[in-house]
Write a structure and sequence with these properties.
Elements: E1 21-25, E2 28-35, E3 40-44, H1 55-61, E4 66-70, H2 88-102, E5 107-113, H3 115-125, E6 130-138, H4 147-156, H5 159-167, H6 170-178, H7 188-195, H8 205-216, H9 218-225, E7 236-241, H10 250-258, E8 263-267, H11 274-277, H12 279-291
Helix pairs in contact: 1-12, 2-3, 4-8
Length: 294
């Protein structure tokens, strides 16, 4: 196994001016960003994203905080090994392995999309190590009882779904732009940084695994959701892009009920990718949370 992950030629260093770091995990090389000094902020992405999506937040906060963003195995600049375990449970384990490897303490944990189910297990298992939580357009419960998710998932588990995801890059080429509140905000240059990280069928295995996990990870999520009250002692910020076509605002209401201590910020014109569509507002809300003493 090669020790270092090289920076690809297509990566715009002006947009993503961060040094590449490599975590040599037994499952494969994992790329992560580690910028700035101070209290730790750990960003956890979903699909079809990678650490590139957090670039605006990192550049705004690295002067006062140590900002870390890992690319899950199979995503971004991390290895995409054939036949690897890309389940939510495996990704959550690898994230915890990185936390242990770097010795991260008193973490502000920022999660979105699948990042909720991947990152929040650490907060549930080690609540004393998580100082604050930021959650947006994410979930951590079994989605299958909801027909809005069970219906499309059945299609995506079929041969047609496999073809769409692996051969046509459905996740990044179709789902991503349609998840924006305003598709025009996903400019060609930005979109290219997501598309080029998933250039062919072999590289898209983890994105296809994610759509399978909407059904398969239900017991994993539900077991953790049953313990959600453990998070009520942690200062929390709930944000939501209200034009998210796939994860609408009623999911936010479920979070508000589960975490009544949380402050809430909504973004009426943003869709699913709040860190891309409403970065300034999200940064401002995060700064308010970070300024709170604990």
């Amino acid at each position: 196994m090669k020790a270092d992950i090289s920076t690809p030629s297509w990566l715009d260093a002006r947009e993503f001016p961060f040094a590449a770091h490599t975590f040599l995990h037994p499952d494969g090389r994992i790329h992560y960003v580690d910028e700035g000094t101070g209290p730790v902020i750990l960003f956890v992405h979903g699909t079809p994203e990678w650490s590139f999506g957090f670039r605006h937040l990192i550049k705004a906060l690295w002067s006062t905080h140590r900002c870390i963003a890992m690319d899950h195995l199979g995503f971004g600049l991390s290895d995409k090994p054939h036949g690897a375990n890309f389940t939510v449970a495996a990704q959550a384990r690898r994230l915890q392995d990185l936390i242990a490897h770097l010795g991260l303490q008193d973490i502000t944990l920022v999660v979105t999309d699948f990042g909720g189910g991947i990152g929040l297990p650490h907060a549930l298992e080690h609540p004393a190590n998580v100082k604050r939580l930021v959650l947006y357009n994410t979930w951590m419960w079994d989605l299958m009882p909801d027909k809005r998710f069970s219906g499309p998932t059945a299609i995506m588990k079929s041969r047609l779904g496999r073809f769409l995801y692996l051969r046509l890059g459905f996740s990044v080429n179709v789902m991503m732009p349609n998840a924006y509140g305003d598709k025009k905000k996903l400019d060609k240059t930005t979109h290219a940084h997501y598309r080029r990280a998933l250039p062919n069928a072999a590289a898209r295995a983890a994105t296809f695994a994610c759509v399978q996990e909407i059904k398969n990870a239900g017991p994993f999520w539900q077991a953790h959701w049953a313990q959600v009250d453990r998070l009520r002692s942690i200062p929390t910020l709930l944000c939501w892009g209200l034009k998210d076509r796939f994860f609408p605002p009623d999911l936010l209401e479920r979070w508000k009920t589960a975490l009544p201590q949380a402050s809430v910020s909504t973004f009426p014109e943003a869709g699913h990718f709040v860190h891309e569509e409403a970065a300034e507002g999200l940064i401002e809300a995060m700064r308010d949370l970070l300024a709170e003493n604990r």
